[in-house]
Write a structure and sequence with these properties.
Two copies of one chain form a homodimer. The first copy, chain A, is of the alpha/beta class. The first copy, chain A, folds into two domains: 5-15 and 94-220, Rossmann fold (3-Layer(aba) Sandwich); 17-92, DNA polymerase, domain 1, CATH 1.10.150.240. The first copy, chain A, has helices at 18-27, 32-53, 59-73, 80-89, 99-106, 121-131, 151-161, 175-184, 215-220; strands at residues 5-8, 15-16, 94-95, 112-117, 137-140, 168-172, 187-191, 207-209. In chain A, β6 (168-172), α8 (175-184) and β7 form a beta-alpha-beta unit. In chain A, α1 (18-27) packs across α2 (32-53) and α2 (32-53) packs across α3 (59-73). Chain A is globular, with a radius of gyration of 17 Å. Chain A starts with a strand and ends with a helix. The interface between A and B is large, with 37 and 37 residues.
Chain lengths: 221, 221
């Protein structure tokens, strides 16, 4: 059955964070990759830990805090200007090269296209606007004050898109996000650009793709 | 006020996982540190993700799954014998050198000493037995089927030790665990052996120590 709604993760799935890595490298030559990795790792850890502690904070705050942490851990000097520039970059990430044409192919009269993201509105709204990609809905976990992969997050898509879980196709490059959505009841495709092993969370995706460009063909099967 | 109960995290706080790193290095020369790091990272990620998904699995299962993941990610061959040996090592970790004497000093007639761990009984019970350290209670998250830093975990100590949160002193080398306990209401000491920055989770520990040997003096203040 063709999904009535297709729901996409944003960071790393539709939008390439590589420009942020490049900016880190330009600020701290030789440290860009290591800094970006630590920044991303803490950013995610804190979404999970704050969710479990029931101490939600917006993703913009967590992202900024994680940048400060990563710089401190690596003994890199961070000033307001650099921090501001990096946070600004997050609002203007480029979509992956295959995203625009894939979304064009996937658009259909009886199908909604939506984003479901950890990103808070202050981050995701300027990003979607700058990309000029069009979606029927941009849903943020900020509405439910808990992060992925909590079921309340995927439930938000069910409510807002007025579709049953089994009618929703979910697409993420984060394996744990895809499996959280699968555990909730969506049909899921994991975009595994880096050839990573499958996370052992008790579920498997319905399909594993190398990039978003393969999704239209996978859906047609 | 002197705490009526002192509750300790196990892995990395009382028990040194370095012997597991050494075993990894002996099995895969040159890869021990990288493998141990990836193994530990996935082990923790999955505790948080499974908790949020409400798909609990015992820590022994997650630890074994994470070992397989880390070996696959690094293209290292893992057989049953090596996996079994590494899981066995986890049941016989050495306490840090300062643990035995610190616990001796901390023991007092009106004070319980306890462990509160992510470890499932099949892992933590043989470990405590092999160490010959003595505790009034060994509490596992397995009873509540959710991992740290969920408040249900710290609540377990309150119930089982029959003490109010403010009467409990909690000690962990994992900053997020210490801050989860602080968010719940314990007095907490973070054992920061590696000189890491503080996690930005909205709380601060009551004290930061270089090792467990400093705890008796910190409590006496």
């Amino acid at each position: 059955m063709s999904p009535r709604a297709l729901v996409f993760d944003a960071y790393g799935t539709l939008f390439d964070v590589h420009s942020v890595v490049q900016r880190c490298e330009s600020f701290w030559p030789g440290e860009g990759a290591r800094l970006s990795q630590q920044w991303r790792a803490k950013q995610l850890e804190w979404t999970w830990q704050r969710s479990l502690m029931r101490r939600y904070a917006p993703f913009s705050r967590i992202t900024r805090d994680a940048l400060e942490y990563a710089c401190a851990a690596l003994h890199l000097a961070l000033d307001e200007e650099r921090a501001g520039r990096l946070m600004q970059d997050y609002k203007a990430l480029a979509p992956y090269p295959d995203v625009r044409s894939a979304l064009g192919e996937l658009r259909a009269p009886a199908r909604s296209l939506a984003i479901l993201t950890n990103g808070s509105p202050d981050m995701i709204e300027p990003l979607v606007a700058s990309s000029r990609l069009e979606f029927d809905a941009v849903l943020s976990v900020d509405e439910v004050k808990v992060f992925k992969p909590a079921p309340e997050v995927y439930e938000l898509a069910v409510k807002r898109l007025r579709a049953e879980p089994a009618e929703i196709g979910f697409v993420s490059s984060n394996c744990w996000d895809a499996l959280g959505a699968k555990s909730f009841g969506f049909r899921v495709w994991w975009i595994n650009r880096g050839g990573a092993p499958l996370d052992a969370l008790g579920f498997e995706p319905d399909g594993i793709l190398d990039g978003l460009g393969q999704l239209p063909a996978a859906l047609a099967q």
